[in-house]
Amino acid sequence: MSEAGCLRIRRRSEVEPRRATQSMNREVVITGIGLVSPIGNEPDLFWEGMRDGRSGVGPVTRFDATRFSCRLVAEASLDNRVPGTGRYAHEIRRMARFVQYALAASRSALSDSKLTDAGGETPRGGVFVGVGVGGLPHIEQGVLRQETRGPRKTSPYLIPATISNMAAGLVSLDLRLSGPQMTLAGACAGGTQALGEAFWAIRGGRLDWALAGGTDSALTPLAFSGFEAMRALSARSAPEAAPRPFDRERDGMIIGEGAAFFVLEERERAEARGVRVRGIIRGYATVSGGQSLVRGCPESAARGIAAAVEDAGLGPGQVDVIFAQGTGMASDEVELATIKAAFYDRGAHPAITSIEGHIGHTFAASGPLSMAAALRAFQHQELPATLGLEAVAPGYEDLDVLAKRRPARVKNCLIHTHGFGGLYATVVCSEARDGDAPMGA
Fold first, then answer.
1. Which residues constitute the domain of residue 211?
2. DSSP of 235-288
3. What's the confidence (pLDDT) of residue 441?
């Protein structure tokens, strides 16, 4: 991209957050959280796994991976929380895992927020779901079944199980929600975009509350084949050795899966209901730009981060920690260059961590799962380590990338994600203020 082109994009992107801040002033809080992850399906178990340095990475169990160089994954489980109950039990049992994970996490988030009858009590709500490649396993299974058993044996649920919006659709139907539903197919940034778009809708007065998050499950031979062709997967055989986010010896990502969903509400409404506040969403931005389909552009990504921080009404020095994507791929170096440009070159020195050493790369769920970690960091005033990190990539040794967990005063966190196609999404969140009900209440 030419310098003039970057400048044109910069001017457009910088105008929107300022205009939004002037006209939208409703505070948006988080009152519910639900998740499915390779290290636990309860927020406390999820945090304990990170605190204790536990990895969810292990051998592939769902198919024969011996023909691949990478034979490790980070598999999640519903832990007997079968989502196939209620009016749509028959359909849910036949859905792809990304849909089932979204349902399980959404139900937990709604229960946690005490919205027991969301459709009846709160009609001004919406559903925002980020999805990357969630339907890929069902597509592969459908093709194989057709080729081996003939087209008459194709399941009538093949298409509904694979289309991206089915997670948002079944969440809305299952929970009897009548408001808008939106699916953000923003690759690995889709879940962060879902959080941000829901935040903007509430802050702007279009909605009073929303269920927002991301979900993905792509544990399939086709995904392994495609990512190995891109040289994106780690070839290490020991689960404790892969992935290694931001490390000089990193050699690729480990595919993970999971979901994280949150109930977002306008503050006055949450206070009137008397529910506990988990955290506050302060700012959001999503931008695009670069010269590569997959590698990313530090200037464009830094521009998005600056816009999100400005949208939050903060300065770079007020961000305490960045929950970065940190997949263990070559793109880690682009992300470090982005953070350096957005913060360190401007005199700010936030801590940097990635949770992907614990749970692998969960695609569209990666931003929301990082949000779940950020909320627990507020509660415990502690930052999780970047599991697998031994020595930061050359040229970035002066950045404060956490190789060990650390007690810290945590007020503001930034979640940064990026997706193929030159897409970047950033959300800024803050701890609950004095007087808010404690998270453990």
1. 3-430
2. ----GGG---TTBTT---B-BB-EEEEEEEEEHHHHHHHTPPP-EEEEEEEEEE
3. 42
